[in-house]
Amino acid sequence: MVNTILTIALAIIILSIAITIFRFVIGWTTIDRVIAFDIMTISSIAMIGIIAYLSNRIIYLDIALVYGLLSFLAVIIIAKYLEKSL
Amino acid sequence: MKNIFITFLILMVVWILLNNSVQINILIPGLITAFIVSLLVCRQCEIFTDYKLTPKAFAYTIIFLFVFFIELIKSNLDVIKRVLSPSLPINPGIVEVKTTLKSKFARMMLANTITLTPGTLTVEVKDESFFIHWIDVQTDDIEKAGNEIVKKFEKYLEVIYG
Amino acid sequence: MNYLIISILLGIIILIMAGIAIYHKESLVAIIATGVVGLFASVLYLLLAAPDVAMTEAAIGSGLSTIIFFYVLNKIRSDKTKDGSLKTKDGRQKTEV
Amino acid sequence: MEYVSLTIGFLVILAGLWAIMTKKNIIRIIIGFVLFDTGIHIVMVALAYVKGKAAPILDSTVSIDDAVNSIVDPIPQALVLTAIVIGLGVTALMLAYAVKLHKEKGNLDIKSFKELKW
Amino acid sequence: MRNSFILILIVAFGIMLYGLFDAFSGNEQLSELAKYYAQKENIEKVQAANLVTAVVVTYRGLDTLGEVTILFLTAAIIGFFLHNKEEKRFLRENSEIFITAAKLLIPIIILLGVYIFINGHLTPGGGFQGGAVIASAVILMILAFPEREFNSKFFTYLESASGTIFVLLAALGAIIGSGFLDNAIVPMGTFGKLVSAGVIPIIYSFVGLKVGSELSNILGNFKAVQSDN
Amino acid sequence: MELVGAIFTLIGALVLLVASIGLIRMPDVYNRLQVGTKASTLGTIFSLFGLVLVNPGWAGKLILLIFFVMMTNPVSSHVLARAAYFIKIPLTRRTVVDKLKVSDSALKVKAD
Fold it and tell me: Which of A79, E9, E99, F54 registers the highest number of CB atoms within 10 A of its CB?
């Protein structure tokens, strides 16, 4: 039962990532694309958490931590690049 | 000195949470690492000086977290309502509010809280003015907007950080 | 556990992103798309039971190399605006190199 | 699942090769190289997968006694791990050359570098 | 015209890859070498719970040494190519919020990096990933405080020191133990705990420091070359 | 208890879906940034909190992850909004007031 619900949640997250990709493709400005990138990485963190539960390995959560760190850094560096103050 | 101690304490808590256990053979490398790291970065850890180590501050931290979570959930109901309604009821604008907080850390917490609560997003911080993008502008007066957005968190942060 | 459908969806995402990385006309978007390819490849490694590789790909292949790309792009752009061959109009960024 | 991953890997390799061969901008060529690299890594990890087995890290879910029958192949994973780091080094080196070339000629079009053309 | 030739080439390459794909029929069990590595007595001899780490550090330890050398050469060549004296540039001030957040996050990120490479024999991760995380802490520092000078000399010394210790530890294995990179030169500890697997966590820590300082040097060089416009 | 946690996770996933829909529907960059940041942060927090309820043994790392997301995501969106305002991405036509433009000296470039 729990596994079924979590699998459905995983599918919904993938769907939301697909919708975000639509914004990434048509995005009007660069900032829009960066927002889409941010949401994709944040959603991937939730996705990795659910995959970790379904595989029953706590060690997968380390990867989610690294993900969170690097998405933060990438967004900051893109913003500073756009401000021309890198 | 107090800075190094607070940094060390925070790093120890992070280490225990990372390892997810409190055995002695995990704690000892953690102690060494946290000590070295807190000595290495102590040049820039003056942000923790403002935290008051009193029971009252601790109690207010918990109340603040509670209020914050309620606002977070309210904000998302708000966002969901706005996104899913067909007419897209938005009325955006950038307003200015004033804060009296001095401590850097408290100001960061305030900005983060503003960003995560209903319909507001911090765009620029300059001295004591916060410029906030508000998705549903009700007033453009500095005082009234301040009452609407900032006051409910400011009173807790003032007690916690002084 | 059957991850088949999830891996197919991830594969479609990766291929779309690779297409954007090759064919989009702004270099900045191409670089972000390359980073996203690395990111979802890392989730795919996780499904293929290789957490070590997933962590390496997330930290190095998708994180640090994107950062280095941005430094280089910044360097190239700043030269270009200096000799005035590619002026920025108000607001819209021209980042094509 | 390993078939799907293998297909994705091969397609990404072809996309990267296409970018390397057709693009004129040096930055795009380097992007093609990165894609090629990622594709090869996906292929190698997919070849290491064993049906229905867990990651090669022993803890409470994978016991030491039954390790042979319950883990996937660790050797290609170790090779890919080193290959990714080397890939970063190669990419950084190529980008450094790109900066140098840009300083020489003022642009990055591959057609304007004719000195080594025979 | 030229593109069509390339297309034909790509299609030929694709057909070749399809041949590989066709011949592949999923693995049902491990290969012979992997079976040898996964046997109980061999795992107990090396004592690393993470078999990938066991392969990287002990069985294929020389590869790791060569790889670290390649990274060192890359850093040296990039430093040689891009060396510029850093000038003062006028940058826009950072947001105060971002600076405060960076001050809070930098120690936590460094601690995360140390956790990753100390636990390399128990959890996924190890020297290379931990080094990358430490390098990203350094880049966060560069981004948040652009007016501070990047101290590349410190990283050079750290890198040489940890590289030397790595080689010395490996050679010590050849002198005391049974061969180059033998991990039984210090007490082994109990399997699955943090203090176990002999010399593996120590070697991986130094690999992590070395990789971290090398990557930081590369990034610092790329930052320094910005300023000559 | 486990069922409650699973339902929490499902709600989190739905909130993430709302975030992506909002990204499509909103009219300008700042509104998209608002919706994106809030909904994605809360969606992730809900999902991870649901996993805490499902499997209390993992609480340590998951709480650290929640803390990390809560600290970094608002900061990155603030920096992004600042950059967007600085490079003069226009606000939508439905904007009623822009106080920042009045005191625009805050955003003058010092040199360059």
Answer: A79
Q: Is the dihedral of CA E100, E103, E104, E109 positive or negative?
A: positive
Which architecture characterizes domain D2-112 according to CATH?
Answer: Orthogonal Bundle (1.10)
Nearest to E136 among A70, A84, A85 (CB): A70
Same domain, residue pair B82 and B145: yes
Which of A18-22, C2-6, E160-164 has the weakest average pLDDT? C2-6
Q: Give the residue from C61, B38, C1 showing the smallest Cα distance to A2.
A: C1
Size of interface D-E (CB pairs under 8 A): 139
Number of domains composing chain E: 1
Find chains touching chain E: ≥3 CB pairs under 8 Å.
A, B, C, D, F
- Asked whether residue E26 is domain-assigned, the answer is no
CA distance F24 to D107: 37
Whether residue A67 lies within 8 A of chain C, CB to CB, comes out as yes
Paired with B132 in beta bridges are B95, B122
The minimum CA-CA distance between A28 and chain D, rounded to whole Å, is 22
Of E52, E124, E222, the CB nearest to C71: E222
Q: pLDDT digits over E19-62, tens only?
A: 888 888 777 777 778 778 777 777 777 777 778 888 887 787 78
Q: Which tens digits make up the pLDDT trace of F1-44? A: 778 888 888 888 888 888 888 888 777 777 788 877 888 888 88
The ipTM estimated for the assembled molecules is 0.87
Same domain membership, residue B82 and residue B39: no
Please check whether residues B44 and B86 belong to one and the same domain. no
Quick: pLDDT tens for E76-104.
888 887 766 656 666 677 777 888 888 88
B136 by DSSP, 3-state: which? strand
State both tokens at C46. 């996780």
